[in-house]
Amino acid sequence: MQSQTAQLETRRIRWTRNSALFGSLLWASLAAAAGCGRGPLGIIELLFLFAPLVVVPLGLALAQAVVPPLFPAAEAAVKLAQPLACFQ
Asked: Taking the model in full, what pTM does it have?
């Protein structure tokens, strides 16, 4: 049986991985639609969407792997709010 901290770490890793994967798939589908001429976005808009959808989740995962979180509550809040950043 895993300890509480190991289970929490597994959930954090899974959340970050799924967030980056979902963002990548969403961005790729938007890019494909724009490439076919059916999407409302241009190349500049797609490049700006790449950061919050793909780069930020991967950066959060990298930061977590390199440096242990100093403020776990703040990190959890940022990870939960990150998917909402795309809709501003």
From this structure: 0.68
If you ran DSSP here, which 8-state letter would residue 40 be given?
S
The one-letter code for the residue type at 52 is P
- In residues, how long is the chain? 88
pLDDT in tens, 18-37: 878 888 888 888 888 888 88
Evaluated on CA atoms 62, 66, 71, 73, the torsion sign reads positive
Give pLDDT tens digits for 32-49: 888 888 878 888 888 888
Residue extents of the structural domains in the chain: 16-87
Helices then strands, counting H and E runs in the chain, come out as: 4, 0
Distance CA 20, CA 59 (A): 10
